[in-house]
Amino acid sequence: MTTPKDLSIRPRDIAFFRDGGASRWWLNGDPVATAFYNALSVTFPQGERFFMDSVRRYRGEASGELADQIAAFTRQEALHTREHVAFNRLAADHGYDVAAMEARTRARLEFARTHPPLLQLGATVALEHFTAILAHALLADPRHLQGAEPQVAALWRWHAIEEIEHKAVAFDAFRLAARDLPAFRRWHIRFWVMIVATVLLFRVVAGNMGDFLRQDGVGGWRAAFGSLNLLWRRPGLLRQILPAYLAWFRPGFHPWDHDDRALIARAEQALAVDWPLESAA
Q1: How many Cβ atoms from other residues are within 10 Å of residue 140's Cβ?
Q2: What dihedral do alpha carbons 250, 1, 238, 74 form, nearest 10°?
Q3: Which of 76, 235, 246, 253 has the most CB atoms less than 10 A away?
Q4: Could you tell me which residues come within 8 angstroms of residue 90 by beta carbon, excluding any fewer than 6 positions away?
Q5: Which residues pair with 279 in a beta bridge?
Q6: Other beta carbons less than 10 A from residue 273's beta carbon
Q7: How far is CA 154 from CA 167, 184, 267, in A?
């Protein structure tokens, strides 16, 4: 499978939280569910800058459709960075200390930057797969954002739409950059960067989530049961993405093996009802 020839990657310049914020526990009044999404969001500004850097490094080798897609990918990621900076500022406004969380993300990315450019790109590809399959689950199952405050839900749906849309850009850039390597070697790199990326991502997000919950005075069985229920039982985000995660390890895998553009279209139509699709800051 390859990226569809008629794929459109369109940066949607939407500004959130410019004239109002969100409550402390914006997801159905649930501190555990809110902490999970906040924990992810804290990683995004630094993470997406890393993604942009690792992909742009190979822009000069790309041509035609891939070159255009890299440009659109970079623009989308820059917009995501801007909006999650604004969203993360709301957490700070509610009294959360996110400095340790940001330092945790920074340390992992500094470790990644000590590796050769191809491995940095490989890490980006692995993490982009994570964001794409999380985005698919978020859009496919309305329970994930059920009860969320409208502006926050719109932010996450907007982000999810674009993560699915550009889900193969880093992957195709990696295939271009590694084109002279044997097929097994390319697969071997993909395999191990995903293992390492999974471990590091889970450590960072779990650490961030724990920091949010401790600052909310939520711990013990309440935090443990709430996290288990959210991620594995109902709605079970990690349970839902497990098959798509495992598909990564199949030789010959490509992100567009599953064409979910129809899901993007439905989500964009629904988003347009609640939020203008072109409201630049």
Answers
A1: 14
A2: 120
A3: 76
A4: 17, 21, 22
A5: 14
A6: 6
A7: 20, 41, 10
Peptide bond into 45 cis (omega under 30): no
Rounded Cα gap, residues 177 and 185, in angstroms: 13
- Name which of 72, 197, 44 is nearest 127 in CA terms: 197
How far apart are the C-alpha atoms of 16 and 65, rounded to whole Å? Answer: 30
As a residue count, the chain comes to: 281
Name the token pair of 280: 């630049």
CA quadruple 50, 55, 56, 59: dihedral, nearest 10: 180
Contact 190, 127 (CB under 8 A): no
Identify the CA nearest to 146 among candidates 42, 235, 55, 85. Answer: 235
- pLDDT on residue 1: 74
The model's pLDDT over 208-232, given as tens digits with 9 standing for 90+, comes to 999 999 999 999 989 999 999 999 9
Q: Radius of gyration (Cα) for the chain, nearest Å?
A: 18
Contact status, residue 55 vs residue 74, Cβ threshold 8 Å: yes
* Residue 86 to residues 79, 90, 99, 159, 235, Cα–Cα distance (Å): 11, 7, 15, 14, 27
Tell me which residue of 39, 89, 60, 44 sits closest to 209, measured CA to CA: 39
Count of CA atoms in the C-beta half-sphere (13 A) of 253: 23
What are the tokens at 9?
Answer: 């990657």
Using the CB atoms, write b or e for 90-107: b if 16+ within 10 Å. Answer: bbeebebebeebeebbee
How many angstroms separate the CA atoms of 263 and 161, rounded?
A: 9
Decide: pTM greater than 0.90: yes
Nearest to 124 by CA among 185, 61, 58: 58
